[in-house]
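agent> step 3/5: call structure_predict on target 'DUF2125 domain-containing protein' (Phaeobacter piscinae).
agent> reason: downstream docking stage needs a structural representation; sequence fetched in step 2, passing through unchanged.
tool.input:
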Amino acid sequence: MSVFLARSSGVAIVMAFSAQAALADVTAKDVWSDWKSYMTATGYTVNGTETMSGDTLTISDISMAIPVMEEDTSGTFTLPDIKFVENGDGTVNIMLPAEMPIMFKIDGPEGPVSGTVLYSHDGSPMLVSGDADEMTYDYASGLMKIALKDLTVPDADVPKEAIKVSMTLTDVVTKTIMSNADSRTYNQTMTSETLNFEASIDVPDDGGSGAFKGAMQGVNFTGITTVPNGLESTDMAALLRGGFSAEGTFDFASGNSAINGQDGADTFALDSTSEGGTIAFDMGLDGLTYDVKQNRTETNITSSDLPFPLALSMAEAGFKLTMPVAKSDEEQDFALGLVLRDFDVPEMLWGMVDPTGALPHDPATIALDLAGKAKLAFDFFDPEAMAEVENGEQAPGELHALTVNSLEISAAGAKLTGTGDFAFNNDDLSTFDGMPAPSGEANLTLAGANTLLDKLIGMGLVSDSDAMGARMMMGMLAVPGDGEDTLTSKIEVTEDGQIKANGQRIK
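tool.output (status=ok):
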C-alpha cells in the first residue's frame, strides 16, 4: 500500500495545500486542465463532468482511479463538486466546499477497504495566477482539518467508527508554483501556527483501546519536486532514471504528544514535549537521504507493569541515512548517523542499581557518524529486483569503503571515542571467511574504564575474575594514554590480512 498512501497524500497536498502568484492570464479551463495533467502525471485516471456557466466552470461527478499500484491492488477516489471562478483580471479562484467528503475504495487481494475522509476549511478560495506554462497557487485559511470519518476493512470485527484519525492546522498559508516544460516541477512552501493530530481505536468487545494525540507549534515546510513527462508513474526506478527528484524540509518550533492504551487490566501512558526539530529528505538518482533531529525532549511514562513512573530527558536525538537507490557499476556514497546526546534517567531508577551513589549519574551519550562507498547491484525501487535480493537470488551489492568520522559512547564516568578508515577488496573473499578483505586502521581512546570496573566490583555487580578478564583484554588491545585512567588503541588491518594492535600482530 506504500504507493497508494504516497499518492493519496499527494491528492491531499494539492487539494489542501497548493499555492503561489504571478502576473499573466489563466482561465478556469486552463486551471482544471493543469489539475488533470498533474493527477495524470502522478498515476491517476481522472474523470468529471464539466459545466461552464458565465465565468464559472463546475466540475461534478469527480472520480480519480489508480489502475495499477501494488500487485493485484487498485484504488478510486470520489469527490464532490469543485468550482473554478474567473475573476476578470486573469486570475482564477478555486472554490472548495467548506466540508468536502472524499470517498475512497481500495480493491486488494484480501477484499475491498473503503471509507470517507472529510476535508473541511473556512471556505477561503484558492487563488491561481500565471499562465498555462507556469501557474501559481496561493491559499490561506484560518482553519483546515482532515479527518477519517469511517473505515470498513474486510473480515475485521471492528465497527466503522472504531478508528478515528484527524489532523487540524490553524492560520495556514501555502504557496505552490507548478511549471510544466520538459518536466513538471512543484515548488511549495507552507506555514502554520499550529498542527494538531489525533488517532484512536476502541474495540469494546476486545476490551482494548488506544489513543495518540499531539501538537506542533511554528510549523514550516519547503520543498521542490520534479517529475519527468511521458514516463509511467508507477515505475519509480524509471522515473529516477528519467530525472525524478524530490527534496524538502519540515521544521517546527516546539511540540508535545501523548499516547495511552489499555488491554484488559493492563494500562500504558506516555507523554512528551520537545523544543522543536527538523525532518529533511532528498531523493533522486544520486540517492536517498533522511535527516531527522529533535531538541530537548522530556518524556514521562506510566504503566501497570512498572512500579513507579519514569521521567526521561534527552538534549538531542537525531538520525541520518544516505543510501544509493539506483543500480550502478560506479561506487556511490552512503552514510549513517545516530545521536542520543545527554540521555538522563531519574534518580529513582539510579537508586535501584546504585543506591549508595558510587557511580557518576551524569547523562549518557551515544553518537555515531559513518560514511562510505558502495556499489548497488539492483534498483532499490524495483519490486522484482528487491524480491530477488530478499530470496537470496541476487547479491545486494559491494562494500568498497567505510569511514568512522566519529564515535562517542559515554556513561557512568567512562567514555569511548574513536575514528577509523577502511577499504574493502571485493576480489578477496577468502581471507575473512566470505567478507571482502578490509585494510585500514581505527584509533580509539577509552577513559575511566578501570575506575568504573573498580566501582562495579565494589557494588557487587562484577566479579573479580570477570574484571580481570576485561583488564587482560584491554591490556592486549590498548596502551596507556596521556591522561589518568586513559587507554589508547590503534587497530590496523593490512592488505595481506594481518591484524595489529598498537604495532603488535594479533592475527
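agent> step 4/5: record observation. The first strand starts at residue 45 and ends at 53.
agent> proceeding.
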